[in-house]
Aminopeptidase N
Amino acid sequence: PKTIFLKEYQVPDFLIDRTHLKVEIFDGHTIVTSTLAIRRNPESQNSAAPLLMQGQEIDIQSITLNGEPLSSGQYTVGDESLLVNTVPDTFEWVCVGKITPESNTSLEGLYRSKTMYCTQCEAEGFRKITYYLDRPDVMSEFTTTIVADKAHCPVLLSNGNLVEEGDDATDHTRHFATWHDPHKKPAYLFALVAGELSVIDDGFTTQSGREVQLRIFVEPKDLEKCDHAMTALKNSMRWDEEVYGREYDLDIFMIVAVDDFNMGAMENKGLNIFNTSCVLAHPQTTTDSGFQRVEGVVAHEYFHNWSGNRVTCRDWFQLSLKEGFTVFRDSEFSADMGSRTVKRIEDVNLLKNAQFAEDAGPMAHPVQPSSFIEISNFYTLTVYEKGAEVVRMLHTLLGPEVFRKGSDLYFERHDGQAVTIEDFVAAMSEVSGRDFTQFMNWYRQAGTPEVTVTSHYNAEDQTYALTFTQSCPTTPEATSEEKKPYLIPIGLGLVGDAGELRLQVKSEPVTGEPADVEQSDNTHRVLEITEPTQTVVFEGVPEAPVPSLLRNFSAPVKLHYEYGREELVALMERDSDGYNRWDASQKLAIAVIQDVVAARQNNASPEMDATLITAYGHLLAQVQESNSLLDPAMVAAMLTLPTENYLAQIAEVADVDAIHFARHFVRISVANALTAELEATYHALHTTEAYAPSAKQIAARSLKNVCLGYRALADDDMGITLAHQQFVQAENMTDGFEALKVLVHSDKPSAAPLAKQALADFYARWQEESLVVNQWFTVQATRPSQDALDHVKALQAHPAYTLKNPNKVRALVGAFCGFNPVNFHRADGEGYAFLADQIIALNTLNPQMAARMLTPLTKWKLYDENRQVLIRAQLERIRKVPTLSKDVYEVVNKSLK
Ligand code: DPP
Ligand code: ZN
């Protein structure tokens, strides 16, 4: 397989002004006739370039050029291409091809999901529909006619507006619909749906007074699960008008729910296609986090209409141009809809758990990658989540008003164009007058920068000095020494005994360049660190403070500062920055867990540091006070210990068994020490109010269920009884599922029979609800008990399981390998062998999924030598598979380097 480099980008040799597709769907095959108005690109470097199109798995029936048939000697068909050596400067291209959606298990291009036909074209799926210039900088006006059987496919959809529909002229069992999209778009935004679907309708009036029809298409049985998505869509449309001044630009906006889908959803122009898991929601079948996910993904795809569709990417190296920006946008939207601090904590938690791990592994790449073999492998946490953090830093550096001016300029200047990340930053630079040359290192260098901070308080002078030292570890593309320093915004406050201190920076820093300081109020600032080492001195500091550093996680870095445990407690209780209160709770928990890990490794008896228990006790007491300002969701997050995966990531050598033991030990200790408080909080929050996915209710349920989880770990059986009651009585999926999880994950003998019965009842009740069955798989796959792997293997034979449905694979295999570390990393290597088997099977079925499932195996460097050898052996085994897809090849090879 070939590596593609950003530096080798060339403008396209040809442009396609108009694309007319006729897609005739028959049972067993589909005929696609594409009529393309092609001309040479005046900007091409080669005015005699041959025509080179992309296409895959297409059986060519005929090609004509300006009406003249091309004989097969006049063109060359490769594995993924079609070459015509001589073509005129302007011509009409007509290609008739035959494809078989029914046997397309890759879920790219046109495929069949259950009884429905649908498409997924990003990034390079359109080439499986017809031969084309399948690259995002070739933008064309699309007209699409779909012809299909009336009975099996009553609904026929494509992008844009419906212009004509009717019976097929020759066969009255068939009908057609023609859609026209007036906005030029790249092929990756093309979509088509045909099938038997029900619809809910609504409308939205844009700020300029235009009426937009909103339609969500689902299987008839799912009609009652669309309201939340519809509300989220309308809220998103309003929000984008208010916050970004962006209005919707077609008369209709459609969403279609599909069960077999590789991604979460896809922003095709005017016709978003969604994984059912990201659009369907109902209190009885969907958890709170499911509701929040639907809201976030609906918003994300809608926001792409501007950040992605109106202004798109020049090439796939620019993927974060649309994804980083759009994730930032959806994250701010969700923050406005719910709890801002808790949303921030969730985002950062994901970043630290998963993106930091990616950045430290063999697939590490810059937000703007410089090369790839298979672009599907670059729909990553780095491009999405870190990309969003980079945009957030621009927002922090410029402030909301100037950032908005920058986004206005960007949208206005580049509307209808395919552009680069540099174009985006240039707009931000222009409106602010700032030079972002150094800032571009965030886009061009891989790896998570590390910032070490030391402090010095001088009581005599009443000065307080903070010294920042930054570095970035070696990643596949560059060594630590080669990396240039970053511009790092550091949100900061100083917490004193009597409250937060006024910040006055001494004009002359002790060393390095003068720090650029932006003042927002007296007690909070954003420092800009630009040098490898830099000191900032504050004056008029009356007491030795506790520094509150990297407030609101102002930069995606690992920040090290030697906090005493009492200092962390002070931040947990008094920091005005909610994010840092949570972060302090995590740091304290990590220290306490690491004590136990060390004891375990030294065969000493573990001891629990009471500091954490006391701090948790305060939180539980405070949140119960009638006039408490504490957000219960925030307390829930603070009481949640860091994951085993995160603890593994920050260990020198991850000892999975000791980590599992230690985290569990700390949880049990908290449960036994705070039994009464946990139970009281549980009861106080356990209401019978009718379900609503409101921030207030979600917060209450999250804390309640955290308390239940702890309470069930105490030595008595009361928590198990409560969980069982909650499971039996639950009227919403959040409470039902959380209780089920407590029962199933408990290692208490008293829980075992209840868990068994609950699992059986749960399945019996929800077996017709595919998404709920996925939850049922996950709760079993993540069970810590020793027989988990055998159980997962047995579940693969369950009639509800299939390797062909990505959601099922993620729910069972993905959950086990990603979120059951103590069993996945079994010392005998059976977990690794199991995953390798799945990847080898998926390699032929669905290469994108196969490559994605490799992630846990890419992290072999974190573990002990025995496990490293075992993991590498499985990677080698996968590498030897004769027909390895590009997707899997790239990840396996990079992992074994
Ligand atoms: N559908 C994916 C997303 O919205 C890819 N564009 O992020
Ligand atoms: Zn996206």
In short: The chain has 28 helices and 33 strands. The domain at 450-555 is CATH 2.60.40.1840 (Immunoglobulin-like). The CA atoms of residues 842 and 850 lie 5 Å apart.
